[in-house]
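Postdoc handover notes: sequence design on the structure in folder B. Input tokens:
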């Protein structure tokens, strides 16, 4: 199914799961705004690849943990798109493996600021641009959570797991808050997915090491998460809101 020329913002869209969402969304006819924090080369390379396939995309920098930068990013998206129909909150970070009694407050604040407050700030700005209450035509928001929200990630990163638990609760609450206003809000909880996030948390061998604990005995690909997200964004999910969809190979 093609979602005719609708406008989609993907935070953390330059790499990993967000980049897969951007590619598949563009192939399905979405115009795509690709947010990134630092890696402009990855985001711009992805824009060129989408354009080469006949899609429409642009890159927009902005740290989702900064309210000023989120407002600037949405102003750029407004200028390019006019209206916004979809938001995927994929920007997220982990920190090095640690127990709680080894975590300092700056780490905790950073994880919560990007994963929780960043998701909430971007969703807030999207609601202002989508809600019938604000004179708009509705839309769909998909938050990228993690199976860690259910597992808790002991002795690895319970701060990250707790941040994703907050994303789940936020998803359910916002879904109910704006359900009458034409906006659907859902979350996808990926399992172990082959992206650069594991190396960024100091565990480049994490996928290899944990593959055997997954009931399917393999990691997932970013495409396999993107397909679920694209379904939640699509008209085929028109009666689905407040859902939290595990995409973790059974884990
Ligand atoms: P990734 O490959 O490390 O990509 C992360 C993306 O987020 C990058 O584009 C990065 O931008 C962006 N980003 C990071 N901090 C940001 C910030 N403050 N503001 C804006 N953008 C920011 O990670 P991934 O694996 O695709 O993860 C995407 C989401 O899936 C995250 O929310 C993660 O928690 C979740 N998840 C991943 C897995 C997994 O196994 N991979 C499992 C469960 C959940 P730059 O390119 O500029 O650095």
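Designed sequence:
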């Amino acid at each position: 199914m093609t979602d005719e020329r609708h406008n989609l913002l993907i935070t953390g869209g330059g790499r990993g799961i967000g980049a897969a969402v951007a590619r598949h969304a563009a192939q399905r006819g979405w115009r795509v705004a690709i947010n990134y924090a630092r890696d402009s080369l990855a985001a711009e390379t992805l824009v060129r690849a989408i354009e080469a396939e006949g899609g429409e995309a642009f890159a927009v920098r902005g740290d989702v943990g900064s309210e000023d930068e989120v407002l600037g990013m949405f102003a750029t998206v407004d200028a390019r798109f006019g209206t916004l129909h979809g938001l995927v909150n994929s920007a997220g970070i982990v920190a090095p493996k640690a127990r709680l009694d080894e975590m300092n407050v700056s780490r905790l604040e950073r994880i919560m600021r990007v994963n929780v407050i960043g998701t909430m700030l971007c969703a807030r700005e999207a609601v202002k641009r989508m809600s019938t209450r604000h004179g708009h035509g509705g839309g769909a928001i998909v938050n990228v959570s993690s199976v860690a929200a259910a597992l808790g990630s002991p002795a690895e990163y319970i701060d990250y797991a707790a941040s994703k638990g907050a994303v789940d609760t936020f998803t359910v609450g916002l879904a109910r808050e704006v359900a009458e206003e034409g906006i659907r809000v859902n979350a996808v909880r990926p399992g172990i997915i082959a992206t650069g996030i594991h190396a960024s948390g100091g565990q480049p061998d994490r996928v290899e090491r944990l593959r055997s604990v997954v009931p399917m005995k393999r990691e997932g690909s970013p495409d396999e998460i993107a397909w679920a997200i694209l379904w939640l964004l699509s008209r085929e999910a028109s009666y689905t809101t407040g859902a939290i969809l595990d995409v973790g190979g059974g884990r």
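Context for whoever picks this up: The chain has a mean pLDDT of 97. Don't rerun without checking with the PI first.
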